[in-house]
Every structure is written in structure tokens, then in C-alpha cells.
Amino acid sequence: SQQGEEDPQALSIQEGENATMNCSYKTSINNLQWYRQNSGRGLVHLILIRSNEREKHSGRLRVTLDTSKKSSSLLITASRAADTASYFCATKEGSTLGRLYFGRGTQLTVWP
Amino acid sequence: NAGVTQTPKFQVLKTGQSMTLQCAQDMNHEYMSWYRQDPGMGLRLIHYSVGAGITDQGEVPNGYNVSRSTTEDFPLRLLSAAPSQTSVYFCASSYSITTGEGYTFGSGTRLTVV
């Protein structure tokens, strides 16, 4: 499978704490993307990091990419109850034009 | 409203029936994809298209057909429904999946095959 693998599968924290999710993948990539999915809804794009970038920020989100280890992490700082959702990483391989492969996701629960 | 529209939202089929899941976007996106989401499996790519008239297979294409006659529409056809095709189906589109946009997803079609 070309899917990435998120770790942990589930994460439970209190409001105000930071949440860190990891993603590992197998092949060389053009970019890696993170998405959020609220229960019963479609996915929402959060951030994209290219293979030549090492870190990227967007609001309370911080994404890192280590291509030598084929891994990425998503950090959500000062978590809120509204951040409760599933988070997926997706990889765009360098050799394929239109394919974007998703992992199985991390279920994040933020308790008030 | 701009976005990706999927119809129907819910569908129950009998084994062996065929049907078409509709997907339309009004953002002039070239890239469109179909995914299925099953518990514990994440999203798996069924078929994708990089422009009108151009389609290709993803990870799990068997039992599904697609066509892309216009930029706006990307229907997914189930040829002969099987219980293993019970899933939530998502259509997504993007101007480019190599830039900062990523995919815009529809709200999904929940399909049950009995």
C-alpha cells in the first residue's frame, strides 16, 4: 500500500494542551498534506509541505517534514474542544501526476 | 455556492444493481478524485482524473468505472453492486495538488449494499 501511517491512532488531551500527530510514509514524495475530518463530514485541507521544506506554520498548526526518515508531524498548539476531529496525512508521490494517498488517520479528542 | 457537490447523500442498493454517484464542481478544477472511506482503513483512492477526457486507476478500482467528459463533472459508476462496496464515498477536486491548495472535498455519499 502507498498509504501513509499516522501515529497514534487515537489521542485524548485537555483543552490548552498541545497535540502532536505523526505520519510515516514509504516512497519518495513531491509533497505531504494534512487534512481534518469532523464526524460525518468531508475532509478539510489544513496545510501542505513540499519535499524541499522542513517546517511550515499556519496559525496554531506546525508541520515538520523529515524526508530522510520519511516522516512528518503535525503539532496543534493550545488545543480547543473544537479541534476534536480525525486528522489525516496524505502524500503526493513525485512520479505520479494526480494521485494523492491518505493514511488511516488519528482521532483527536480534546476535553473541555 | 462554490464547492464540490455530491449526490445522492444516502443510497441503499441491492446486490447486483448498478448506479451512478454524481460529483460536480464549479471551481474550474482540473484534478478530481474518488475515494472510499471504510472504518479503520482511512481513504482509499478509486479513480482520478487530471483533466477532461483523462482518467486513471487508483488503489481500488475494481467494480467501478469513471468518465470525465467535462471539467465540471466526474461521475462514479458501480457496475454490479456488492456488499463489499458498502462504504462512504468522497469526491474531491483541486486546481493543483502540487501547490498550497490541496483538495476540496464533497460531503460524501453513504452507500449500503444489501
Question: What does it look like?
Answer:
The complex is a heterodimer of chains A (112) and B (114). In chain A, 0% of the residues lie in helices and 58% in strands. Chain A has no helices and eleven strands. In chain A, the strands form two sheets. In chain A, strands 2, 4, 5, 9, 10 and 11 form a six-stranded mixed beta sheet that branches. A five-stranded antiparallel beta sheet of chain A has the order 1-3-8-7-6, with no helix packed on it. The mean pLDDT of chain A is 92. With 114 residues, chain B is an all-beta fold. Chain B is built from no helices and eleven strands. In chain B, a hairpin with a 3-residue loop joins strand 4 and strand 5. Chain B is globular. The relative contact order of chain B is 0.33. The chains are: A mainly beta (112), B mainly beta (114). At the A-B interface, strand 4, strand 5, strand 9 and strand 10 of A face strand 4, strand 5 and strand 10 of B.
How would you describe the oligomerization state of the chains in this entry?
heterodimer
Q: What pattern of helices and strands is seen along the backbone of chain B?
A: EEEEEEEEEEE
Average pLDDT value of chain A? Answer: 92
Poorly predicted sequence stretches spanning 5 or more consecutive residues of chain B:
none
Strand content of chain A: over 45%
Morphology of chain A: globular
Largest sheet of chain B: 7 strands, mixed
State the share of residues found in helices of chain B, binned by percent.
under 10%
Query: Helix count of chain B?
Result: 0
Provide the gyration radius of chain A in Å: 13 Å
Fraction of helical residues of chain A: under 10%
Number of helices of chain A: 0
Name the beta content range of chain B.
over 45%
State Rg of chain B: 13 Å
Chain pair with largest interface: A-B, 26 and 30 residues
Provide the residue-averaged pLDDT of chain B. 93
First and last CA, distance of chain A = 37 Å
H-E order of chain A: EEEEEEEEEEE
In whole angstroms, the N-to-C terminal distance of chain B is 34 Å
